[in-house]
Amino acid sequence: MKLSRRTLLKAMGLGAAALMSPQMLRAETLPHVVVVGGGFAGATAAKYLKMWGGLGVQVTLIEPNETYVSPILSNLVLNEQKTTNDLQFNYVNHSTQYAVNVVHDTVDDIDAQAQTLALRSGASMQYDRLILAPGIDFIDITGLDSDKVPHAWKAGAQTNLLKTQIDEMVDGDHFVMTVPAAPYRCPPGPYERACVVADFLKNTQGLVNCDITVLDANPNVTVERDMFLAQFAGYGINYRPNSIVQKVDSDARSVTFTENGGVAQTLASTVLNVIPNQKAGQIIFNAGLNVSNWAPVNPLSYESTVKANIHIIGDSQGTGQPKAGHQGNSEAKVCADAVLRSLQGLAPDPAPKTNSACYSPVSSTHATWLTAVYEYNATTQQMQLVEGAGYPAAEEPSTGNYSDMFNWSGNLFADTFA
Amino acid sequence: MTISRPFMLTSLSAALLLAGCGGGSSTSSSGDATSSAAITGTVPGTLIEAFCSDGSYYSTHSTDDGSSEHPFSLAIPSGLNCHVVMTTNEGDTANRIITPISVEYNGVTSALINTSVAFDFGYVPLLTDRDDSSFVDTNGDGVVDEPLVITPDVPVGANVVEASIDVLDSDNDGIPNVYEDDDGDGEFNYEDEDDDDDGIDDVDETDDNDRDDDGVDDLYDRDDDNDGISDDDDDDDDNDGIRDEEDDDHDDDDDTSSDTPTDYTPVSAYTLTPGRLLAAQCAQCHGTNGNSTNGWDSIAGESAAELIEEMQEFKSGGEDEPIMEAQAHGYSDAEIEALAEWLATQSSSEGED
Description:
The complex is a heterodimer. Chain A is of the alpha/beta class. Helix content of chain A is about 30%, strand content about 25%. Chain A has helices spanning about 5-10, 20-25, 40-55, 75-80, 90-100, 155-165, 190-205, 225-235, 280-285, 325-345, 400-415, and strands spanning about 30-35, 60, 65-70, 90, 100-105, 105-110, 115-120, 125, 130, 135-140, 175-180, 210-215, 240, 245-250, 255-260, 265-270, 270-275, 280, 295-300, 305, 310, 355-360, 365-375, 380-385. Chain A has a five-stranded parallel sheet with strand order 5-2-1-9-21. In chain A, a hairpin with a 4-residue loop joins β6 (about 105-110) and β7. The radius of gyration of chain A is 24 Å and the shape is globular. The longest helix of chain B has 13 residues, at about 305-315. The interface between A and B is large, with 89 and 102 residues.
């Protein structure tokens, strides 16, 4: 016999509600989407899943840290225009405004068959859809101890460590930084940093005789080439492309590298900033979701092409779109929409667009920008630059761009965390 | 495909455990919630009910410990939005007082609460006498006209949720749908076979948005007939004996009209106009739903025609705004129309600050 709740309530009266057996009242369970990682991609995904999915979906955001320091604008900590506190965000709005279940924990294991997660706290959690946004991890370099030679490529303590070291420089000292081989997080970021540090040393600190060397693993500046090369020339930055780091002496702050395939040479420095080559977050490898260093996904949904019901967004995904916060936010919305559709048995939007924009300071007063729009190519099944939209960038750094930079980042931060 | 699976979350499963000074209150719950969290409180002798956003229902009675403040405890699932309703004199239809509860916290007052931890309501001052001067019940159905607003200490992990779409309270008045009486006939909708008094049984209605009277709008109800079988798996959603594929008035797309039985119509919370996803790509720079938080333009609250004209201006290069020129080139005319039409539906927060 099927008993509807209405029949029961009518038969038994309201006062008898408490006597009803649980199974008779059992309702459908809401689909549960778990987002792992609270950076720009993950935080955006969790927010938009609830904003669009409303009460029809349960969303849990798992992020080990209660606060997040934005890598975006973090080079401005080095020249004292910002502090890491200024760039700090939390997940209170996710919890109070959007009813996201925020859990500060770490995912130790993913059982893709059972669709369960093992958390470090000992808890287990089931999911209907899993969205992974673990960001980047670094590829080891012999001798590199990032507590001594910071990468400052994940913002926070690393940023402040590099800032402290730069502050200790005196005139005539040598700042050396290395640029990782593409693809890496934030394409203009390393070049931006070289400019900001050069400006800070020479114009703010008055250390006009400091040397600045950029060892770039790439054959040339990867983005905004002419603009950055002109800035490097203006600052007297010694730019050395095709320079592949071999090893680091973290105590001596020296780096051994090959240049243009030549014999290894060692360069001494006063402050050494080694940004290692990058790969997807460790969880991608643990879960067997990687092909080589990144996680291949279908860019219509960001679902893994390796395992079903697991989506990867942000820096760990391997679509070839740039790895950056603005882009991760963009991907998160496409993913959230596709996940909500899939829970309704619907196909993803067949023609999603994503976009990227980045403002880069090159001093404490001037900034540049670049932007791009990506479209889905049904033949290659990949995202590509929209034809005709090009990949434009600011013609030259300006103070107007510098103030625009804070409007851009302000709305991006709010769209992600507020 | 909707995966139907109990929400199992061992260490996090929430329980709205309305627990007071101990004592064996009888609790019935429809879920698999594991109690690791609690809401505690005391009330006059009371039936406490929770209606949760997955359509599940929980209830308990407070325990008469001889005092005037009876403790109660009620388990609900973790992280789910729920309405709480408390009824005094529940066995006596003529005198019962049904009080939906709202919580005020951090400037937000809402009848939707969500907790994954212990949540102490404290003493809830329910009325027990309809002659009390503060009892306001215009239509005499025993349900107070306004929810009782309480201001307990809200612990970390518990929240008051302002939902734009509340499937349990379609008119957002804080009174859950189950305690609405649409036709004013003295029967609440959940008791009433004929919510609108038009002589047609609710289950046969095409204009009743909650045919099974479970308080969850059918558009969001994954089990329209409350037979325990998800609509996706249920060949006969309305339990009328006619298989969905042969049933003009019910189909798996939740569309109650008979002329589009084959197209899946998504529920409105999942409005899938292409414009929304495209417009969301403007939000990185122009703010969520087009409401900028700073000096950059808000793009909500403009007409579609205005937005289209501006985008076409950017595209033509006539505005000397290189970034917007580049962005405008990224979208086809049809896409610009779609996102503009969606943005035009968004309210602007300008003027509020």
